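Researcher: Here's the sequence for the chain we discussed earlier.
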Amino acid sequence: MYQKSTLTNGLRLVTEESPHFHAAALGVWLEVGSRDEEAAENGLTHFLEHMAFKGTPKRCALTIAREIDQMGGSGNAFTSKEHTCFHGKVLAEQLPRLVDLLSDLVLNPLYHSEELEKERQVILEEIWAQEDNPEDQVQVLFARRFWGDHPFGRPILGEAGQISRFRRDHLLAYREATYRPEQTVVAAAGRLKHQELLEALESSFQDFRNGCPPRTRRPAATHPGVHAFPRDLEQVHLCLGTRGPAAGDPKRYTATLLQLILGGNMSSRLFQVVREQLGLTYSIYSFLSFFSDTGLLGVSAGVSPKNLEPLLAATFKELKKMKVEKILDAELTAAQEYLKGSIYLAAEDCEHRMMRLAKNELHFGHYIPLEEIIAGLLRVTAKDIQELAQELCRPQHWALTLLGPVTDLKFSLDF
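Model: Thanks. This is the structure I predict for it:
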């Protein structure tokens, strides 16, 4: 059963009670991500997320870690382009303890200078690890070129030089400007009681206030083209992409099916043609990212230099086919059944249900039943997919980033 309540300070609670679960998952979602940073602040959202676990007036860092372990579940946090989330999953009887812990982390971090210096080094190690992973790094480089000087183009982790300069007062000022109760959603799913959870949140979050004016997110422009970053690697790692629909766009169902058919699973066109039939690569896949006002449709792969041009030619051919040929009914039905099964299977996990609740509230402001999502997917026709492919697959709107042993670029985006 779904329920929603709003505290006097604007914080929203959305829950889905499922008595058959033994566990409950809870997440505190703040509508602040790397997109909300100014250039000089890049990396601060992620830094704040890390520092929340380094101590509060009630708990030191070790106490926080021990308490998470003692609950016998899991607790963590993540930062994305548009959100920060502190979340956990525990047995139902431990839910009040989880609420107390997560609210303490969100509301009462100390940011001790000594802990800040330790965590600065941890984040620098995280940045360097990403730079050493070409599959991740090509995504970072793609974003820089495709989104340009928009915050979408900056890495969520920040740049090493910038992270090295941040002080405690920078974290405090950024937190004061961006952590807002009216832009906070607490989502919970599993064995729980909505009223009991509401009362616990009213006690924990009643003094959460922010009088600063909210920041305005500026629209993103895109910058198509081909960009190469030479590096001494065994493979060329590539990311190819274009602007896609936003999270609330009615075409999101069509885009989801288009992406799946293109390269979203093992029976997809790119996997079957590029890997299975041509044997050009071990890894190739498509992806779809939804943001509040835009999106990204992309393809990623790693390939030996001698197979780079054949792989791109095969990928371009499949993109063109999506535009000029309607997919077969059997292919559409198989994709719809795959998504239907994935949705229902994921719904058996209370943590997945919690995240879906939160995203529905953040993007739409209300609950969307599973049946409505599946009905939306089943309404999509082969004609809808072809028309969206014709809209999205315009080579002049795409960008390609290459990382690895690349020198001569004798190809252009042609599909």
